[in-house]
Amino acid sequence: MKLTLSSSPHMRADRDTSQVMRMVLYAMVPGVICQSYFFGWGVFIQIAIATIAALVVEASILAIRNKPVARNLSDYSAVLTACLLAVSLPPALPWWMTVIGVIFAIGIVKQLYGGLGYNLFNPAMVAYVVLLISFPAAMTQWIPPAPLHAVTLTFSDMLHLIFTGYTPSGLSLEQGLQAVDGVSSATPLDHLKTGLTQASTYNELLTSQVYEGGPFVSSGTGWAWVSVSYLIGGLFLLKTRIISWHIPVSLIVSIAFCATVLHLINQDIYGSALFHLLNGSVLFGAFFIATDPVSASTTAKGRIIFGAMIGFWIIIIRNFGGYPDAVAFAVIIMNMAVPLIDYYTQPRTYGHKGK
Amino acid sequence: MQLPQFEDIISRLDKGQTWSFSGGVHPAGNKHLSNQTCTVHPSLPEQLIVPVRQHIGTDGQILVKEGEQVKKGQPLTQSSQAFSVPIHAPTSGTIKAIGDHVTAHPSGLSETCIQITPDGHDTWVSLTPTPHYLEIEKSELVSQICNAGVAGMGGAGFPSHIKASGSKSVEFLIINGIECEPYITADDRLMREQAASILEGVDILTHLLSPRAVVIAIEDNKPDAIAVMKQACESRTDIHLVTVPTKYPAGGEKQLIQILTGREVPRDGLPIDVGITMFNVGTCFAVADAILRGKPLIERIVTVTGSAVERPGNYWARIGTPVNHLLSVAGYLPKQQKQPEVIMGGPMMGFTLNDAAVPVVKTTNCLLIPAHNELTHGSDERACIRCSACADACPVHLLPQQLFWHSKAKEYDKAQEYNLFDCIECGACAYVCPSEIPLVHYYRKAKSDIRVERDERNKADKAKARFEARKARLEREKLEREAKHQKAKEARLAAVDNKTTSSSKDKVAAALARAKAKKAQQAGNSDATANETSSAPQDNKKAAVAAAVARAKAKKAAQQAAQQHTDTPPASNKSTDGQNVPPVSDSAEDAQAEKKQRVAAAVARAKAKKAAQQAAQQHTDTPPASNESTDGQNVPPVSDSAEDAQAAKKQRIAAAVAKAKAKKAAQEKNK
């Protein structure tokens, strides 16, 4: 009787890579729904554009590299990258900018480094930064959240806006971006940043309508709810052990700590911990971006350092840097430090003396 | 590392608290498949194939011959060393063959086996039980355990008598009834059915090792075994029965030590280094059988399980029973499998057999015959996404993905930096890997490559050392040979030189120098004996002149010679710095008399050197008196006092003579 041979272990846990990626996608659902509630159909359109572009780019590069296309596409990593990028983009961003971002994320940051598992940087965040630096105006023009809309944009309006720059009724992007007060298309973070340069204090600026209707005084309209819904998705990831607690917890604690220290130093200039946690993409970043396993630290201690340092950089860049939000920059900075962190945080092996 | 103290450990264990090890996994146990029925004695197979080595260590000496009749329990080999245990005939019958047969080895190697055809009577050899073991010497007990062929039955097959005869003091004797591997229920059933015998074995081991505490550990997924053991231990205050939370690999020796005592076995150490000795429950049973009933280890419980057998359960399998016999006893269902597959051991650490004819050995605890898709086979390896689920699962705190990375890239130095050899191959990392990477396989490959490399390096080092020793020897021999040839040549040349007058010029020069040197010497001698206050400067001058003349001539001759033989180094250089040659007292006279000029020159040079050194020590600041001498440094300085002058004179003369002779000799040789 000829018997087949295989190497132990002969048992495996059920979870595989594509399942992990799909679970992260599922966890994004509440956040995406909430985001589209406040920011319209653009969110879905961007996701669709990015996903199609990602699959095309990934497939072509895999084909060039003589890798099995269908097998690698089925791991859902390209789709996940596309979705993470898409929800970070302003909903009315011209389609070709989104495509450029995706090409950069998948083609350069991921595939040029060797494909899944080999990239040093978080592909979605590098693409975001590339777009932010290349198209600063378009990348900071967010549609005002639903309660502040001057005009309500339908699906078809949004589609035309993204692909042609005008709605069927002839409204331009700029007009579409008008908020009720006719002035601001700013995000809460943007509003604060600009306001501070005009000698307003933090508390004065919080009285703006941009901050109305959130769950807390300092949280921006719509934005805070989006953050909270991503938090729910994040907790689902924690619960299902797709991600470990180290990075999100250390990141959030670090932000709370750093923000509180600055806030105590000068309440007129520096926002509170809650302000920083609920505005911008901190909670999204903490659970969905910084936890990208490929570009994050791999040791338990290292992940705590990695998360805490991202939090630190977010607060530093938000308060002292040129850009209103800083999650992408902070993540990229810490991506670079990962090999170093990993090297110095190796656990003590059983039976070995401590280092 | 602060080790938890004995009292702390005991008080914790008595409270039902344990430590824990980080990592570990929770695979589905599937123990219910095989632990529902009593252990069955299967029928006698047609052939029994008993491998000579079934333990870690060396083979014993084979005691039987082909065709010989053996009885059940008769030793087939003899333990010749400490690390060797004998094997015994599992039944009575005839030795059919002694030779290579495929055995239970992951790589399907053949090993020396003794094949027995049973006669069906199953007659025992006369047994010698030792029921009153407390009355005999401990060393006698230990050798009885050894002679009964008891080797660790948990899996490693470490000879038990070695552990039982430890000289170091034991704090904890741990009895391992964890059985953390899925599917396996051999120890579970043994504890349920043979609790009393296990405790007898524990008592014997306690008697041998005198531990401060005995701990029996059972995983909490075996409530029946726990209940039975608890009942058996009820009146025993000296035994601590501990229930351990189910987590793979809690049954690993190092992990169980960590769970029960919070201690870690040092990297290159043994459990005894932290005061612990561990035995498997099966081993305890075998020890009791060996001592109290005199029975050698010839059968053990084997779990035959999996959905591809009709009657999964536990079987008292004789050592040497071919696997296919057990398969037929348990009712193998080939249709359940897409491709036939038998795993020996558990699904986490067991290995697939390449032949169902392999025999059951002392360490075989399970035969797993899975139905198609029963075990989630991962063969679809994808790229590592660095999720570090493996690191979280690793019970020894390794970084499996780094090990994988370096093992795959064959960067074995790096892999070893990440402590590759601390990997216990438990398979937890590969079990959790979402990319289905066969991590353990990579580590095994790397380990074996490193071992091969190490062996080859050792071999190469030895070869290199041998080669270098040979080279040195050849070099030495060559030099010796050359020296011998040189000597012979010189002797020959000298002989020729003495006979012929081929170089009359040189001869004349030499003779002149000799004569002058002699004169000078004589003058010096007379000076020394006759007049202490004589005109030293005058004598000095004379001597210096003579020396200079001699030198000049010698130099000229040497130059001529050198022109002729520029590439040949003067042979005299070797011979003239003859510190080994004892200085002759009357150098000038002797030299004159001596026919072999080389020797004389050497002697003279040595003496002159010595004298010059003395003079130099005495008169370092005295300017040379002789202006005629061109190279003043060679002329010893002249002193004011008579004594000094005498000495100086003597030295100079000697030096001059020596030099002249030496140069001449060189010149001659160079021709």
| Proportion of residues in β-strands of chain B | 5-15%
Number of domains of chain A: 2
Strand order of the largest sheet of chain B: 12-11-15-13-14
Shape of chain B: elongated
Radius of gyration of chain B over all CA atoms, rounded: 44 Å
* Class from helix and strand fractions of chain B: alpha/beta
Radius of gyration of chain A: 21 Å
Mean pLDDT of chain B: 82
Instruction: Give the helix proportion of chain A (percent range).
Output: 55-70%
Main sheet: strands, sense, barrel of chain B: 5 strands, mixed
End-to-end C-alpha gap of chain B = 80 Å
Query: Please, how many helices of chain A?
Result: 17
Number of alpha- plus pi-helical segments of chain B: 20
- pLDDT < 50 runs, ≥5 residues of chain B: 528-536, 566-588, 620-640
Structure notes:
The complex is a heterodimer of chains A (355) and B (671). By secondary structure, chain A is an all-alpha fold. Chain A contains 17 helices and no strands. The model of chain A has no long low-confidence stretch (mean pLDDT 87). Chain B has 20 helices and 15 strands. Chain B has a 5-stranded mixed beta sheet, sandwiched between helices. A 4-stranded antiparallel beta sheet of chain B has the order 1-6-5-3, with no helix packed on it. Chain B starts with 5 loop residues before the first helix and ends with a helix. At the A-B interface, α1 of A face β14, α13 and α14 of B.
Key traits:
heterodimer; A: 355 residues; mainly alpha; 2 domains; 17 helices; 0% strand; B: 671 residues; alpha/beta; five-stranded mixed beta sheet; four-stranded antiparallel beta sheet; 20 helices; 15 strands; 11% strand; elongated
Give the helix/strand layout.
The complex is a heterodimer of chains A (355) and B (671).
Chain A: H1 17-39, H2 42-64, H3 69-73, H4 77-88, H5 95-111, H6 123-134, H7 136-140, H8 155-164, H9 173-177, H10 188-197, H11 202-205, H12 223-239, H13 246-265, H14 273-278, H15 282-289, H16 300-320, H17 327-344
Helix pairs in contact in A: 1-4, 1-12, 2-4, 2-5, 4-5, 4-6, 5-6, 6-17, 12-15, 13-15, 13-16, 16-17
Chain B: H1 6-14, E1 48-51, E2 61-62, E3 69-70, E4 77-78, E5 93-102, E6 110-118, H2 138-147, H3 160-164, E7 172-177, H4 186-193, H5 195-209, E8 213-219, H6 223-232, E9 239-244, H7 253-261, E10 276-280, H8 281-292, E11 299-305, E12 313-318, H9 323-330, E13 343-344, E14 351-352, E15 366-368, H10 389-393, H11 400-408, H12 412-417, H13 428-432, H14 439-499, H15 504-529, H16 536-564, H17 572-576, H18 587-593, H19 597-618, H20 642-670
Parallel strand pairs in B: 7-8, 7-10, 8-9, 11-15
Antiparallel strand pairs in B: 1-6, 2-4, 3-5, 5-6, 11-12, 13-14, 13-15
